[in-house]
Amino acid sequence: AKSFRVVVLPGDGIGPEVVEQAIRVLETVSELSPDFELKLESHPFGGCAIDAVGEPLPESTLKACQEADAILMGSIGGPKWGVDAKVRPEVGLLTLRKTLGLYANIRPANLASDSLLNYSPLRPEIAKGTDLIVIRELIGGAYFGKRKEQNVEPNPEEAWDTMIYSVAEVERITRVAAQIALAANPPLEIHSIDKANVLASSRLWRKVVTETLTREYPQLKFDHHLVDSAAMVIVANPRKLNGVILTENLFGDILSDQSSVIPGSLGLLPSASLAGAPSDPSSPNFRPTSGLYEPIHGSAPDIAGKGIANPIGTILSAAMLLRYSLGLEKPAKAIEESVRKALDSEDAGGLGLRTADLGGKSSTKELGDKIIELL
Amino acid sequence: AKSFRVVVLPGDGIGPEVVEQAIRVLETVSELSPDFELKLESHPFGGCAIDAVGEPLPESTLKACQEADAILMGSIGGPKWGVDAKVRPEVGLLTLRKTLGLYANIRPANLASDSLLNYSPLRPEIAKGTDLIVIRELIGGAYFGKRKEQNVEPNPEEAWDTMIYSVAEVERITRVAAQIALAANPPLEIHSIDKANVLASSRLWRKVVTETLTREYPQLKFDHHLVDSAAMVIVANPRKLNGVILTENLFGDILSDQSSVIPGSLGLLPSASLAGAPSDPSSPNFRPTSGLYEPIHGSAPDIAGKGIANPIGTILSAAMLLRYSLGLEKPAKAIEESVRKALDSEDAGGLGLRTADLGGKSSTKELGDKIIELL
Ligand SMILES: CC(C)[C@H](C(=O)O)[C@@H](O)C(=O)O
Ligand SMILES: CC(C)[C@H](C(=O)O)[C@@H](O)C(=O)O
Questions:
Q1: Can you give the residue range of the structural domain that contains B176?
Q2: How many angstroms separate the CA of residue A231 from the nearest CA in chain B?
């Protein structure tokens, strides 16, 4: 049996609670299959690491992440380590992304089940059928360009950041979007988002996306949208952008969060941050990609410790981990199926298996139990 | 009688059609009042100016704008002058903003009438009561920072833009937000939006907003939100941000467009771009502010020339023009009242006075007629 090393970073707030259920799910699929074995090990990361050792990303945690086949994270941060704090959890996350070269952030926003339509802030007829995958460049742009803080010479009265992209950076993220688009049958359409009518970095973005797709993936359909217009369409008519939304770091931060409220609860959605294009796990040429997997929700300090957080985003992140970093498509699909069944069980038997974010009374653990039972 | 010079820039696409109705409305309020007189003059601007004289902002148009008491614009651009074109209409707009020092963009997003709730893409119970005013800094940030295009030395493979803000730039836009907040009774809450957990320019933004408001407007309530989180809240629960949304140029571009789909049709919403803080027209110390007023919709080439565009956004922009640049509060209010009545007339008498964007069959001119009749 193949053996994989998975580093777990439970983090802060509800992080440890939701991660616990995802670990149980991973342990179950591994027990059910003779083909592979998972070695799970937890490490401190984020606010809890600041409290324990004074820094969000301790050397030992970074080293474990670098050696792991994949990383599963809960959530980090909280009011205790706010924007004004000296050492902040997010800095650990940004360093981890950069050091591991996790340039491709993948965030699906779709309705896992039509039974959830009533939880969307959009009218059901507008939300229905929304099926977006945001592919966000994660280690370039204004996040990592040169910057100058206020009160620093020269010009202490000014502060600035640089939105910068190179041809190579845009090419590689475009290829990730193309691979994801091609993995679907029929292939997905790619919607590239920029602000090319104003920004030089966006003009480069648009040109390189066009050239890369035309040259290397002539079979794929794609178009370009300005970011302001895309922000309107995502609310007014999200199906119009169904397929892959390909964009740079800062726009992706905004648009992926905006998209993620359509399916009704942030608690449902997973994400992956990869160091390379995900290849098809069912192909003999599958090449694993190191990656960090986490739910998109935050650490939700208001409900931390109460055992009522929705574990589904983390459990679906674990499914993505199996698929993209370990090449294990079968157990990934099995988990996704169980989640869908668990969500639909309310309609079926009136079980009301919903956590508080979806208007229910179930505990984090009860969701975990049900999903495991259905595996 | 006081005489005011108003420059009109009809622009492209549906611009001339909607501007025509706003001019009729302005002429009517001016005829109805012995206190003031409006001198209206049209100038070429945008795509039509490119076609006529090879540039979007001819010298004579700029000069007229500089000498005017206020400017009313339709809309500019279209597929004919796309992102790849040598000379683009938007460049004229950016130059006009910068040259006239129009640093404060004001964009209300509210439901002019509850009878429109059914046109919002949001569930009625979520859209109801939404009352946002986005105040966007308009001549700083990445729009006007130093930039480098691709294929330029050094590093032809890279392109970049600079998001830059100075203390003075943030102070003055904060004061505009404070004035707008104080003009309401009770004063509005201010929600400042940035990305201070990542960007240096946002850290300056947050610090200066906090200091300016605390020092100069201690009576006002304010808070800070990260832009990604704000983009979620605007969809999930927009009332939470009711009041003034204060933000920098690029974030404001995205968030104001996103907000503007909540009220059901872009065709309804006005905007103002001002060179100074708007003072209270009812106060004896009123100081006029030069400004550019325009509907937020684009040139909609698909329906141009058909006479079916919604003129309300432009008519409400004309009302803002009277208020902020001419200090004429009474006719401004009168116009806003007539628009509200015209929109509600469907419920009242089944007139179906709606343009196509709101599911109706009325023409642009019919809307204009009705609003003038109600004045
Ligand atoms: C915590 C923060 C630095 C981070 C980001 O902006 O990338 C977060 O918002 C995210 O999207 O993962
Ligand atoms: C046309 C474009 C340059 C402009 C902008 O980005 O400012 C437009 O989107 C707007 O918001 O007025």
A1: 131-261
A2: 5
Structure tokens at B192: 């400042």
Cβ A268 vs Cβ A313: under 8 Å: yes
Same domain for B139 and B168? yes
- Residue B136 within a domain: yes
The Cβ of residue A66 has, within 10 Å, a number of other Cβ atoms equal to 13
Atom of ligand 1 nearest to the CA of B226: 9
Same domain, B251 and B341: no
The answer to whether residue A303 is domain-embedded is yes
Q: Is B198 in the pocket of ligand 1 (CB under 6 A)?
A: yes
Strands A190-194 and A243-247 turn out to be: parallel
Q: How many CB pairs under 8 A join A and B?
A: 181
Residues B250 and B141 in one domain: yes
CB atoms inside a 10 Å sphere around CB A351:
14
Assigned domain for A299 exists: yes
Ligand nearest to the CA of A249: 1
Query: What CATH number does residue A294 fall under?
Result: 3.40.718.10
Euclidean distance between CA atoms A119 and A124, whole angstroms: 9
What is the number of structural domains in chain A? 1
Tell me the pLDDT of chain B (375 aa) as tens digits: 899 999 999 999 999 999 999 999 999 999 999 999 999 999 999 999 999 999 999 999 999 999 999 999 999 999 888 877 889 999 999 999 999 999 999 999 998 777 788 899 999 999 999 999 999 999 999 999 999 999 999 999 999 999 999 999 999 999 999 999 999 999 999 999 999 999 999 999 999 999 999 999 999 999 999 999 999 999 999 999 999 999 999 999 999 999 999 998 899 999 999 998 887 787 777 788 889 999 999 999 999 999 999 999 999 999 999 999 999 999 999 999 999 998 887 654 455 578 999 888 899 999 999 999 999
* A142 contacts on B by Cβ (under 8 Å): 163, 198-199
Q: In this structure, are residues B21 and B367 in contact, taking their beta carbons and an 8 Å threshold? A: yes
Pocket lining: B232 vs ligand 1, CB cutoff 6 Å: no
Is-catalytic flag, A365? no
Whether B365 and B318 share a structural domain: yes
Which of A200, A237, A261 is opposite residue B236, by nearest beta carbon?
A261
Claim to verify: residue B245 and residue B313 sit in the same structural domain = no
- Residue that is last in its domain, among B231, B261, B291: B261
What Cα–Cα distance (Å) separates residue A142 from each residue in A106, A163, A165?
19, 4, 9
Instruction: Kindly state whether residues B145 and B243 are assigned to the same domain.
Output: yes
Q: Quick one: B254 and B142 in the same domain?
A: yes
**Which residue, among B108, B66, B95, has the nearest Cα to B323 in the 3D structure?**
B108
The CB of B228 under 6 Å from ligand 1? The reply is: yes
Q: Which of A320, A328, A276 is nearest to A294 (CA)?
A: A320
> Which one of the listed residues A35, A223, A228, A347 is annotated catalytic?
A228
Contacts of A288 (CB under 8 A, 6+ apart): A69, A324, A325, A326, A327
Q: Is B229 exposed, middle or buried (0-12, 13-18, 19+ CB in 10 A)?
A: middle
Q: Is the CB of A90 under 6 A from ligand 1?
A: yes
B164, B197, B257: residue with CB nearest A88? B197
Q: Tell the burial category of A161 from Cβ atoms under 10 Å away from its Cβ (0-12, 13-18, 19+).
A: buried
CB pair distance less than 8 Å for A163 and B167:
no
In a domain, B147, yes or no: yes
